Amino acid sequence: MRLLSWWLLPLTLAEDASCYHEIALNLLEKGKFFGSEGIAYRPPLQPFFIFFIYKIFGQKIFLVSLIQIALSLLSAVLIWQITSAVFDRKAGIMALVLSLFSFDLALFAPVLMSETLVVFLLTLGFWGLVRFNLSPKERVFLLVSGLSWGMAVLAKPVFFPVFLLIFFCIKKEKVFTDRQFLFFLCLPFILPAFLWSARNLFVFQKPVFISTNSGLNFYIGNNPYSRGTYDKNTEKILFLFSDKSEIERSDLYFKEGIKFILSNPQKALANVLRKPFYLMATFGGSAEGLIVREFEFGEWSFKNLLRGVFGSGQLVSYWLVLLSSLYFLATSFAIIKHNFWLRIFLLFMAGYIFSLLPFFTFPRFRIPLLPFLIILGSFGIKSFLIKPDFKKLGFAIIIFCCLTIRDWLKIAWLL
């Protein structure tokens, strides 16, 4: 499927990928991290990942795609092992199948965006934590978790407060000794963000956590033109303050966003309530529709028909994962209550969603949630096949249908 999506994609440098590629070339040719958007506008992980591949093997875009496909397959294996450890072997096999046949994960595998690398680092971190719990003497697993999550923050800074919350809960549960917790988990986690932020402090002579695009992202989610997501109206604000420096633009965007919130609290609250529905939308924008948008009605070529099939597969595979995870949540409160790892997974998911609410949400941003939805959904499918509960299934379907409506506030106003 990943090779098929690679073949169907019009280009692997779509959307943000072209910016990462540009920065990687500047690192390769000029030895400096910068792009046309600025010297710290983009988080550094994906550009450095591409740069190291170019540095070792030459400027071969196809090789980056191939390595990312391998990482995507490794992520599926890690999801299988995590699920097997948390639940059982049958649920693990189901998770492996769902991971391998997730059209969204398959689609992003060859694209030079950060989603595939982020999913791999997230699953590697949780796998290391679970393995350490099974073999407490193997501290290397704990080190793997800290470093993996620390590197993930260099791709998506919104992860930082989420993992701090997880660390707090882990410390409270006394899963590890104080020394293990500090030296093998916390310090490796904090180190990458600290080093890059120190670099930004040296460059700007002002504290900048990871990247300078947070100001624009905040204003996209809090402005009078959009509804908390990236839409056609967003283009009105992309080039505001173009005469200002990179860091000045970020500060001004933050100020404009705060000004909007203070002057329009009801509309700002409405945008916040809409954001989770845009994030978890059950139709449209699935994995940004990179292949679907190339589908042309009336063209009967084999490749075009496959694009239509792939687009339908994106929806169906996501529906299956989402519905099965909702069924699990509806039927397994007792299991969650007594399973520490499930509570940690749910805490990560909830924390990630809440960390996005100050900014804007988009269907692509749910990709980091897919491994955890798959873990929950695998056990949901297994339990349904063994002993189906149709009342709870009906409840899960109702919640699923509610997520289909993106703007409940608009419907309430019409009623």
Would you kindly provide a brief summary of this structure?
The protein has 415 residues and is mainly α.
Task: Describe the 3D structure.
By secondary structure, this protein is mainly alpha-helical. It has one domain. Helices cover 69% and strands 0% of the residues. It is built from 19 helices and no strands. The protein starts with a helix and ends with a helix. The model has no long low-confidence stretch (mean pLDDT 88).
From the structure above, extract its key features.
415 residues, mainly alpha, single chain
Order of helices and strands: HHHHHHHHHHHHHHHHHHH
- Termini separation: 44 Å
Biggest beta sheet summary: none
**What structural category arises from helix and sheet content?**
mainly alpha
Outline type: globular
Low-pLDDT runs of 5+ residues are none
What is the percentage of strand-forming residues?
under 5%
- What is the count of distinct domains? 1
Helix percent band: 55-70%
Could you tell me the radius of gyration in angstroms? 21 Å
